[in-house]
Write a structure and sequence with these properties.
This protein is an alpha+beta fold. The chain is 25% helix and 20% strand.
């Protein structure tokens, strides 16, 4: 409600019928820009609106002498009809006060929904952390052959896991490479007749399936992508937001363009229908519409021509879009707000848990508590697919770095703060180290590469001088994800020596309960994170220094 002329005015009263067009428009002061119009809706309230007097050129109702100009100016600056902003590519959803009921119906009718069953939350908001999966599909449905492959049903072309901490103090947006080879789990999908059809999963092979096949292919819906992300990260997904090519064009135009910056010029000259055809010089620029879409799509003209390079451009675009939408110029301009809300809601397909303006508003108000300074963009750690080479054609999850990032996200750790913290020296690794000739160890393979126990044994004996080492074969307890070294208290100096040789983190050391018998062995069990003798293991409790990061409040040049 706005206080005008000493009394409260319903937001609906600020929209009047324009007799010239037959549409509704904002009642604005004379110094304001032209207002957007909204088609009339049926119903009694709409008919009452038609009976309201048309405002005079000076704005306001006919009530005798007009209010002083100073009061009008003050009133105009306070007026924030439709405090709607909706996120770039659908995931930064920020909202304020509502407008008239017919606007509610207008925007509500724009939003499409998909029932993903148990894959997501049934509630719009949560008192816990929130995980939203933003999926940019490359479907060409309804777009013709302009972007190539006109009959494509689409893939999960751009996917971002947006995690908001429980206390809303920080958020992490993690991009997931589309060309990552990974398994896709079984996926129950809702059919048009109300029945449920389970689409069989696909086990990970050497070259397939790629992550982007989790959507569209074989009839998979966004719930299948949600389940795939949960399988990879261990993080439950609460909601999804699906957008297509048109979303980038309409949203970037609605905010008046998105500022970007390139370290090198980009000129994509691939054949028509195949590439992005982006042509931008080095330095700052502002993109919108088709050019904005080309910016987030381009990859052929980048360093490796890969999806990983393109992700860097997308992260810059998203961060800049957040800053643009939260700027005062956007939030106080009714015309921009209307265009942004209309474009965003038309662009969205969401799960039933947040289907509709009311639910999206509830979620948006909750998430808008996070300051852009504490929104960090990163990428799921991957390595080149060993089966394919070193050009990033396909990639696989980096099991040495990814677990630490997943753990940080799960524990609501702000990545920018985590990077600034100095690495603490764990007490397990402090103190004297035994001579290699005094180290006694039994080596088990509990998930490492085939033959890992024997090759590690030979490496220890031949290159490190650990003569008292024994091959214990497969671990009696079966496979485990992490490599461990179990030792007795009086073997601590041996454990520190072996950890230093092998690059084991403090988290891998497991103290035993009693002193060892004379001549007893420590037990080294090689886990799924083990990549070979002499290759250091990542500490699962410390975020690797080379995790890429970008902040929503910082302007950076990429390319």
């Amino acid at each position: 409600m706005d206080a005008q002329g000493g009394r409260n005015i319903d937001p609906a009263d600020q929209w009047v019928l324009d007799p010239a067009t037959g549409d509704y428009r904002l009642r604005l002061d004379s110094d304001s820009p032209p207002a957007p119009t909204v088609p009339r809706q049926g119903g009694r309230r709409a008919r009452r609106e038609e009976q309201r007097p048309v405002p005079e050129p000076g704005g306001g109702r006919r009530r005798g002498r007009g209010a002083p100009a100073s009061r009008k100016a003050k009133r105009s600056t306070k007026r924030k009809v439709l405090m709607w902003t909706a996120g770039t590519l659908g995931f930064v959803l920020l909202a304020g006060s509502g407008g008239a009921w017919f606007l509610y119906r207008h925007f509500d009718g724009n939003i499409a929904t998909v029932d993903v069953g148990t894959a997501g939350s049934r509630q719009a908001t949560s008192k816990d952390a929130v995980n939203i999966l933003v999926i940019g599909t490359d479907t060409r449905a309804g777009l013709g052959a302009k972007y190539g492959d006109a009959g494509s049903v689409g893939h999960a072309d751009t996917t971002i896991l947006f995690h908001v901490a429980k206390d809303r103090s920080n958020a992490t947006a993690m991009s997931i490479p589309r060309d990552m080879v990974t398994g896709i789990p079984d996926c129950p999908t809702k059919q048009k007749d109300g029945s449920t059809k389970t689409i069989p999963g696909t086990a990970q092979g050497r070259f397939s399936p790629r992550f982007n096949e989790s959507l569209g292919q074989s009839g998979r819906d966004p719930g299948c992508t949600m389940r795939t992300v949960t399988k990879i990260t261990g993080l439950p997904i609460d909601h999804f937001v699906l957008v297509n090519f048109e979303a980038v064009k309409t949203l970037s135009t609605a905010v008046g363009g998105v500022p970007v910056c390139l370290t090198h010029p980009i000129k994509d000259t691939t054949p028509e229908g195949e590439g992005s055809h982006l042509d931008l010089p080095a330095g700052p620029a502002k993109v919108q519409g088709e050019q904005a879409l080309a910016f987030v799509r381009t990859r052929h003209s980048l360093k490796n021509g890969s999806d990983l390079d393109r992700i860097d451009l997308q992260k810059q675009f998203l961060a800049s879009m957040i800053r643009q939408m939260k700027s005062g110029d956007t939030l106080t301009d009714p015309t921009k707000l209307f265009k942004l809300a209309n474009a965003a809601t038309k662009s969205l397909t969401v799960d039933t848990g947040i289907g509709g303006v009311a639910k999206l508003t509830e979620l948006a108000k909750d998430l808008s508590r996070v300051d852009p300074e504490h929104i960090t963009f990163t990428t799921l750690p991957v390595i080149d697919n060993p089966a394919e080479g070193t050009k990033h054609a396909t990639v696989v999850v980096d099991d040495t770095r990814a677990p630490a990032l997943f753990k940080a996200i799960k524990n609501d750790v702000s990545l920018t703060k985590a990077k600034k913290k100095p690495a603490a020296t764990d007490t397990k690794l402090r103190g004297a180290k035994a001579d290699p000739s005094e180290v006694r160890v039994l080596v088990h393979n509990g998930g490492g590469p085939q033959g890992a126990a024997q090759t590690t044994l030979e490496w220890l004996q031949n290159t490190k001088g650990v003569s008292h080492s024994t091959n214990g074969g497969n671990a009696p307890g079966g496979k485990q994800d992490r490599t461990t070294l179990e030792y007795a208290p009086d073997q601590a100096d041996q454990a520190r020596a072996l950890a230093a040789m092998m690059g084991l983190p403090a988290a891998a050391l497991r103290p035993g309960k009693a002193d060892a018998e004379p001549g007893a062995n420590m037990t080294l069990t090689l886990g799924g994170d083990y990549r070979g003798a002499g290759k250091p293991l990542a500490d699962p409790d410390r975020l690797p220094d080379d995790i890429p990061q970008a902040r929503a409040d910082k302007e950076e040049c990429v390319g």
